[in-house]
């Protein structure tokens, strides 16, 4: 099959690599323009562009696909199908209809649950027990197209957005290779989504990372894991912003939310709206990630002190 691939970050590059390994004919790669990155803000190509160039693939980097000149370039390669994974640009109807078999999207949730920009983070934050990959036939809506293939994976109590992202990257790569094989043999059966079961994974805002200690320890633990590594969950202590990277919830009797109940080599025990949270890995603004014991060696906290309790209304 002649395939156009559209994607940008590592999640997408993992899928592209699998398609190359499966000997598919990648006739064109679309990815976002190079962006400034790193301390020197050097113009940096996407993970997909770097991989495509290693394999000598043709790469286009439009700022938008609304310009008809790009439609001409896409149509010129006469592709059978377009595979889309975390591309980051809206595909107009005029583009969706160019490939003979349309456009297949690799979406990181079990649709119709978690349509939208942040399905991995929202699944963890909501306490979902499982998530997965959906291969979807794209239409003009936001993740509303017919379901072609689903693969599920459990969400462990230790999963962060990063670890779950990595699992889903691998699963997505496997799923699209399988879906294209079924497509070639005309064995993909589209299933309409049940819109009544849909929920929306809104883009993560930085201020959502602020911890509200009045929430339960379980909810706060989920937020910490959902926002690791971006944007990071944080609290304030005497005007110091402190990011929390790893914690563990307990269901034991609590105290006033935000109060430090105990300090020991295993962590800092903080009261929540219900239960307690043991802070295990933390980071002061401008500092390094440290274990609680390392952190306390250079930062004074005492039992009875309080973290700032004001937080985001999101749970």
UniProtKB/TrEMBL annotation:
Q: Which family does it belong to?
A: Belongs to the Fmt family.
Q: Name the chain's protein.
A: Methionyl-tRNA formyltransferase
Work out whether the entry's keyword set contains Protein biosynthesis. yes
UniProt-annotated binding residues for (6S)-5,6,7,8-tetrahydrofolate: 109-112
Which ranges carry the Formyl transferase N-terminal domain? 1-180
Keyword check for rRNA processing, yes or no. no
Function recorded in the entry: Attaches a formyl group to the free amino group of methionyl-tRNA(fMet). The formyl group appears to play a dual role in the initiator identity of N-formylmethionyl-tRNA by promoting its recognition by IF2 and preventing the misappropriation of this tRNA by the elongation apparatus.
Residue ranges of domain Formyl transferase C-terminal in the record: 203-299
Which terms are listed as keywords in the entry? Protein biosynthesis, Transferase
The highest taxon in the source lineage is: Bacteria
Which reaction equations make up its catalytic activity?
L-methionyl-tRNA(fMet) + (6R)-10-formyltetrahydrofolate = N-formyl-L-methionyl-tRNA(fMet) + (6S)-5,6,7,8-tetrahydrofolate + H(+)
Q: Name one GO molecular function term.
A: methionyl-tRNA formyltransferase activity
Q: What is its EC number?
A: 2.1.2.9
Q: Which GO terms describe its cellular component?
A: cytosol
NCBIfam families per the UniProt record, alphabetical: fmt (TIGR00460)
């Amino acid at each position: 099959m002649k395939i156009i691939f559209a994607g940008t970050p590592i999640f997408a590059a993992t899928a592209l690599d699998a398609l190359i390994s499966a000997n598919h004919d990648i006739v064109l790669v679309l990815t976002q323009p190079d962006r400034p990155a790193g301390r020197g803000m050097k113009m940096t190509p996407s993970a997909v562009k770097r991989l495509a160039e290693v394999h000598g693939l043709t790469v286009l980097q439009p700022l938008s696909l609304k310009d008809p000149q790009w439609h001409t370039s896409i149509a010129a390669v006469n592709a059978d199908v377009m595979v889309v994974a975390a591309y980051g640009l809206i595909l107009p109807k005029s583009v969706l209809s160019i490939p003979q078999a349309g456009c297949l999207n690799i979406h990181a949730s079990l649709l119709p649950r978690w349509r939208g920009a942040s399905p991995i983070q929202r699944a963890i934050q909501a306490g979902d027990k499982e998530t997965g990959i959906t291969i979807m036939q794209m239409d003009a809506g936001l993740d509303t197209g017919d379901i072609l293939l689903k693969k599920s994976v459990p969400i462990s109590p230790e999963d962060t957005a990063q670890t779950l992202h990595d699992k889903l990257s691998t699963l997505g790569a496997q799923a699209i290779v399988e879906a294209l094989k079924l497509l070639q043999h005309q064995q993909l059966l589209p299933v309409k989504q049940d819109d009544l079961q849909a929920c929306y994974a809104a883009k993560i805002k930085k201020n959502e990372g602020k911890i509200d200690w009045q929430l339960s320890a379980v909810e706060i633990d989920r937020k910490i894991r959902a926002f690791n590594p971006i944007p990071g969950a944080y609290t304030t202590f005497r005007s110091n912003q402190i990011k929390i990277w790893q914690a563990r919830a307990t269901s034991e009797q609590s105290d006033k939310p935000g109060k430090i109940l105990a300090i020991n080599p295993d962590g800092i025990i903080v009261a929540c709206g219900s239960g307690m949270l043991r802070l295990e890995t933390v980071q002061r603004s401008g500092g390094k990630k440290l274990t609680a014991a390392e952190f306390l060696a250079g930062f004074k906290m005492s039992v009875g002190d309080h973290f700032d309790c004001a937080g985001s209304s999101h749970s």
